[in-house]
C-alpha cells in the first residue's frame, strides 16, 4: 500500500489486512504500562490540517508516537499558507524536509489525490484525513473495526447510516467499505440531504427512521454539517430531531445486540439524545479508542509493511 486516499477501490483483502493488524496491535499494547513499539523509529510523520479536528488529528499523533515515529503537526492557520503559499508548494516543502508520510485534511475534495501525484517522485506516503465532502477512509476503517469487535463478521449485517449524507465524507467512505466487507447499507435521510446519483450506489434508501431500526444491526448517526449548508435543507433543528434524531424511544426499536455509532463531534439533543450517546449499546468512545489502533495499522502498512520483523 503506497497511499490511503479512499475506500472506494480498496479491496476486501487490503481492508481486512489493516483491520487484522489493528487487532494485533491492540492485543499487543493491552495492559502495557508503557505503550511504545519501535516499529517506525526513524520515520517522520507530518499532519497537515487545513480544517479543525480533534479526534482524527490527536489519534494520528498518538498512533505515530506509540510506534516511535517522529510526529510533527502543521496547522494551516500558523503556516506559510497564511502568506499565500499553495498546497503544492507546502507539500513539496514538507517532503524536502524529510517527511515519510503526510496526513492531510483539506476542505477541497480531491486534495489528497493531488498531493499523492505531486509527491510521487519523493515517494512520500499520503493519508487522506478528510477531503471536502469526498472521503475519510480511516474513519470508515475504525468504524468497521468497532463493528467487528461488537458484532463479529460484517457479512450480511445491516447498517443504517442516518442524517446528513449529502455533506458527509464519513458516509461515503463507509458505504464503499461496508459493502465491500459484505454488509448491507441503508441510508436514512430527508430527500434534501441525499446526494445526487444515490440510486447508483449499492445501498437502500429510506426516509423513515422508525421503520428501519428494528431490522438494523447497527445505526450510524451523522453530524448535521451546518458549515457546509447554504440554504434551507430542513425546516428547523427541532423538526429534524423529531424525524431523524436517535431518541431513547427510538433506541428501544433496535434489536438488543445493535450498536450505535457516531463519528463526532455530536450535536447532543438534535442528532442523538445524551442518554443514547451514553447507553451501553453506544460504541462512540470505543470508536475513538479503536481509531488509534487502526491508524497505527495504516502507518505500519504504509511505512513498514510485511517485511518489517518488528
TrEMBL record:
The keyword Magnesium does not apply. Carbamoyl phosphate binds at residues 55-56, 105, 136, 139, 264-265. Residues 2-149 form the Aspartate/ornithine carbamoyltransferase carbamoyl-P binding domain. Residues 156-302 form the Aspartate/ornithine carbamoyltransferase Asp/Orn-binding domain. L-aspartate binds at residues 83, 169, 223. Keywords: Pyrimidine biosynthesis, Transferase. It catalyses: carbamoyl phosphate + L-aspartate = N-carbamoyl-L-aspartate + phosphate + H(+). Pfam families: OTCace, OTCace_N. InterPro entries: Asp/Orn_carbamoyltranf_P-bd, Asp/Orn_carbamoylTrfase, Asp/Orn_carbamoylTrfase_sf, Asp_carbamoyltransf, Asp_carbamoyltransf_Asp/Orn-bd. Gene3D superfamilies: Aspartate/ornithine carbamoyltransferase. Heterododecamer (2C3:3R2) of six catalytic PyrB chains organized as two trimers (C3), and six regulatory PyrI chains organized as three dimers (R2). Catalyzes the condensation of carbamoyl phosphate and aspartate to form carbamoyl aspartate and inorganic phosphate, the committed step in the de novo pyrimidine nucleotide biosynthesis pathway. Belongs to the aspartate/ornithine carbamoyltransferase superfamily. ATCase family. This is Aspartate carbamoyltransferase.
Amino acid at each position: 500500500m503506497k497511499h490511503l486516499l479512499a475506500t472506494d477501490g480498496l479491496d476486501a483483502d487490503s481492508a481486512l489486512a489493516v483491520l487484522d493488524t489493528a487487532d494485533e496491535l491492540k492485543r499487543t499494547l493491552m495492559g502495557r504500562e508503557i505503550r511504545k513499539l519501535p516499529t517506525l523509529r526513524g520515520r517522520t510523520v507530518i499532519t497537515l490540517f487545513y480544517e479543525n479536528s480533534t479526534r482524527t488529528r490527536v489519534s494520528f499523533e498518538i498512533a505515530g508516537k506509540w510506534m516511535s515515529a517522529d510526529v510533527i503537526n502543521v496547522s494551516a492557520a500558523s503556516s506559510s499558507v497564511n502568506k499565500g503559499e499553495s498546497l503544492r508548494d507546502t507539500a513539496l516543502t514538507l517532503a524536502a524536509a524529510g517527511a515519510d508520510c503526510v496526513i492531510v485534511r483539506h476542505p477541497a475534495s480531491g486534495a489528497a489525490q493531488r498531493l499523492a501525484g505531486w509527491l510521487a517522485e519523493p515517494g512520500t506516503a499520503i493519508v487522506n484525513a478528510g477531503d471536502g465532502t469526498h472521503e475519510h477512509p480511516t474513519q470508515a476503517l475504525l468504524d468497521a473495526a468497532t463493528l467487528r469487535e461488537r458484532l463479529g463478521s460484517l457479512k450480511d449485517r445491516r447498517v443504517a447510516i442516518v442524517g446528513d449524507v449529502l455533506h458527509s465524507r464519513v458516509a461515503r467512505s463507509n458505504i464503499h467499505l461496508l459493502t465491500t466487507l459484505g454488509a448491507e447499507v441503508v441510508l436514512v435521510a430527508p430527500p434534501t440531504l441525499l446526494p445526487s446519483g444515490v440510486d447508483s450506489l449499492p445501498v437502500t434508501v429510506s426516509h423513515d427512521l422508525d421503520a428501519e431500526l428494528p431490522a438494523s444491526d447497527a445505526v450510524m448517526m451523522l453530524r448535521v454539517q451546518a458549515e457546509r449548508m447554504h440554504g434551507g435543507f430542513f425546516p428547523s433543528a427541532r423538526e429534524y430531531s423529531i424525524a431523524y434524531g436517535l431518541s431513547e424511544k427510538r433506541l428501544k426499536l433496535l434489536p438488543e445486540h445493535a450498536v450505535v455509532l457516531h463519528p463526532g463531534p455530536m450535536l447532543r439533543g438534535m442528532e442523538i439524545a445524551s442518554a443514547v450517546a451514553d447507553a451501553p449499546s453506544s460504541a462512540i468512545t470505543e470508536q475513538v479508542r479503536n481509531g488509534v489502533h487502526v491508524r497505527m495499522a495504516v502507518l505500519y502498512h504504509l511505512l513498514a509493511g510485511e517485511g518489517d520483523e518488528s
